[in-house]
Write a structure and sequence with these properties.
By secondary structure, the chain is α+β, with helices and mostly antiparallel strands. It has twelve helices and 36 strands.
Length: 668
């Protein structure tokens, strides 16, 4: 209850605030929807690395360099006690992957400041970083030895003499799926710079690795070839550092990856499908094996989602996992297999965990529906986040959408969730245009109702314009268990469409959506679902297909992810051509009516650009309004600032034209 004094104070405060609002309109009314360039310019913290004693957290900050047309990353340092921020790197290019020496005196990182990615070390107190490696092909990953005297790293072998002689004699050519350059393990002495090669040959390519606690061995995973196509061959090996002797620890269908040692050095934990076929449709588990070999023990068999290893601490093994629209940290007891969630907030995303040497403190990134991604620190047992950064200050001038999670029933009764964005002044009595943004994946991705701006669509601008944005987690999405994931098997396209259109109908039934002003878009697998919509539905006013497969036979022949189609369709194009035809959007192109924009990177190694040409020609032949943007020099992801600006502006123009009736800027 207000006293006379507090009531008077409240009136006075309100009067002062009103006066301040008159003098500084930004306090009350000057907030605006972020522009495309403002969204791209946002700085994003990531990859925190806490010092062994917990005093500091080093982390990456990504920002756009418009002049060079690239995203650059610098390393910052925050004092966990005082909150003081220091920028450790300020060179051109990218400085990333900070990792502390075991004694905390040095911080190692990878930088391409001189062209190729090399390892550098610097003092947390500042000073010029010292370059540690100068290998011809650059460095992939690196890790400090337990005593801090050496750093192990991966690098790709340079061209061999045979390839060099061939190029001198003939015009350049490649033997497809044969001319590989393998990644291998090396070690460098910090004091002298002396290099030691640890693995070699053409039998496998090394990826992730970890040192044994005594520093005498390295466990690593390796593929038969340095390509995504070889992922089923990923297995775990152990290398003796002194002798270079390598032995294969596991020899069963993979992937088996990311091996890490137990604190006593007697066991190794790794991510595994436990030899099950069709791994794209399976959960990823944590398995433990003796460092000498033997049977694998599945310690997350009862956890119905894919587990991503984080750390092996004295009180258990920590792992991260997607849970519906959230991301959480868990701890499993290796002997009893008891699992406990340690992150508190149900709908938040917790990621990128880093523990102190004694495992009592942990640094991480957290974001939710109202909080921008920030660096946090907490006690490790149960997270009680303490925020260390304030990158959300970049959003102070922006009027942002509301975000929430909704759910509905698909046509077969399956419960589907999605993230919904609404205007800040949302009125449930109004009918709004609806933009459906469909995530990629499918099995390793889910849409979240969190304050992030990392996809190629100008969603905030549409919401500010008076639209709703729905991001459905259709069947096959991560976070809903293996059974939900496998609902997509031999049902790609039709099942996904049912989940999407039932979400649209759910919002129409609530009276929130103008059924005649609905658009759909998506990238990668989301582009596939969008292409399915374009060739199977007349419910949408316009569609945008971003880097989406349109013909699964063409995809299977060209892609680096061949196993994906063969797992989800449970066949090859030659064993069951009908299932490939039935699940391909191009098959039904003669029924297409919806205006469709196609976007694709010129050098996409994942989704062949031939499918984009095929869809475009099919639409043109049917007289469907169609536009095809081929993005020069880009691959599957749009990884440059100007590239992102281009994609966003193209989508903004396309849907503003068809949903709001605005002039088509491209035609003008």
């Amino acid at each position: 209850m207000l006293t006379c004094r507090s009531a008077l104070a409240s009136i006075l405060f309100a009067s002062l605030f009103a006066l301040a609002s008159d003098m500084h309109p930004a306090l009350a009314s000057d907030k605006h929807a972020p522009t495309i360039d403002e969204l791209i310019d946002l700085k994003v913290p990531s990859t925190p690395s806490i010092s062994p004693d917990g005093r500091f957290v080093a982390f990456n900050v990504q920002q756009a360099n418009w002049t060079e047309n690239r995203y650059e990353t610098q390393i910052w340092l925050v004092n966990t006690r005082t909150g003081e921020l220091i920028q450790l790197t300020n060179s051109k290019g990218t400085n990333s992957d900070p990792a502390w020496s075991p004694d905390g005196r040095w911080l190692g990182f990878i930088s391409d400041r001189d062209g190729k990615s090399q390892i550098y070390v610097t003092s947390p107190s500042g000073g010029e970083p010292r370059q540690v490696t100068a290998v011809e092909s650059g460095v992939g990953q690196f890790g400090w030895s337990p005593n801090g005297s050496r750093i192990a790293f991966t690098t790709t072998d340079p061209d061999g003499e045979e390839i060099k002689r061939r190029r001198e004699r003939y015009s350049d050519f490649e033997i497809v799926r044969h001319d590989y350059r393998m990644n291998h393990l090396w070690a460098v002495e910090i004091g002298t710079g002396k290099l030691q090669r640890l693995t070699q040959g053409n039998g496998y390519a090394v990826y992730s690795f970890s040192w044994s606690p005594d520093g005498r061995k390295l466990a690593f995973d390796a593929l038969a070839a340095p390509t995504l196509r070889a992922e089923p061959t990923a297995n775990v090996y152990v290398c003796d550092v002194e002798s270079g002797l390598v032995r294969k620890l596991i020899d069963e269908p993979g992937p088996n990856r990311r091996p890490n040692w137990s604190p006593d050095g007697k066991s190794i934990v790794f991510e595994t499908v436990m030899g099950r076929p069709n791994f794209f449709t399976q959960n990823i588990y944590l398995g433990i094996i003796s460092a000498e070999g033997g049977a694998v023990e599945n310690i997350t068999a009862d956890f119905d989602e894919s587990a991503s290893f984080v750390a092996w601490a004295p009180d258990g093994i920590y792992f991260a996992a997607v849970q519906k629209t959230a991301e959480h940290l868990f701890r499993v007891e290796p002997k009893t297999h008891k699992i406990e969630r340690t992150s508190p907030q149900d709908l938040a995303a917790y990621r990128s965990f880093s523990f102190t040497k004694d495992f009592k403190r942990v640094a991480f990134i957290e974001t939710d529906a109202t909080n921008y991604p920030e660096v946090y620190v907490s006690g490790a047992k149960m997270l009680d986040p303490n925020k260390l950064t304030n990158y959300a200050a970049q959003l102070n001038d922006f009027k942002l959408a509301q975000r929430e999670v909704i759910s509905w029933k698909s046509s077969d009764g399956t419960i589907i969730e999605g993230a919904l964005m609404k205007p800040a002044d949302f009125d449930p009595a109004k009918k709004y245009p609806l933009l459906v943004v469909i995530h990629g994946g499918p099995g390793d991705t889910a849409s979240r109702a969190v304050l992030e701006f990392d996809d190629p669509y100008p969603k905030e601008m549409w919401v500010a314009k008076g639209a709703l944005v729905l991001e459905p987690n259709y069947r096959g999405s991560a976070g809903y268990g293996q059974k939900f994931h496998q609902l997509i098997v031999r049902n790609m396209g039709a099942g996904d469409y049912d989940d999407v259109i039932s979400g649209v109908d759910f919002l129409i039934a609530k009276g929130w959506v103008d059924k005649d002003r609905v658009g759909a878009m998506g990238w990668s697998f989301g582009g596939f679902v969008s292409a399915w919509i374009a060739t199977h539905s007349d419910r949408f006013k316009a569609v945008s297909v971003g880097a989406g497969p349109t013909d699964w036979v063409v995809f299977d022949a060209f892609t680096e992810l061949q196993e994906m189609t063969r797992h989800y369709l449970a066949a090859s194009p030659w064993s069951d051509p009908e299932i490939y035809r039935k699940n391909s959007p191009i098959t039904n192109v003669r029924q297409a009516k919806t205006p469709t924009m196609i976007e694709h990177g010129e050098f996409d190694p994942i989704v062949p650009v031939a499918g984009a040409y095929e869809l475009y020609q099919g639409l043109v032949d049917q007289g469907v309004p169609a536009r095809f943007y081929l993005y020069k020099g880009l691959g599957h992801d749009i990884d440059t600032p100007k590239g992102n600006r281009t994609v966003m502006e193209h989508n903004l123009n396309w849907f503003n034209h068809y949903l709001w009736g605005e002039p088509d800027q491209e035609v003008q």
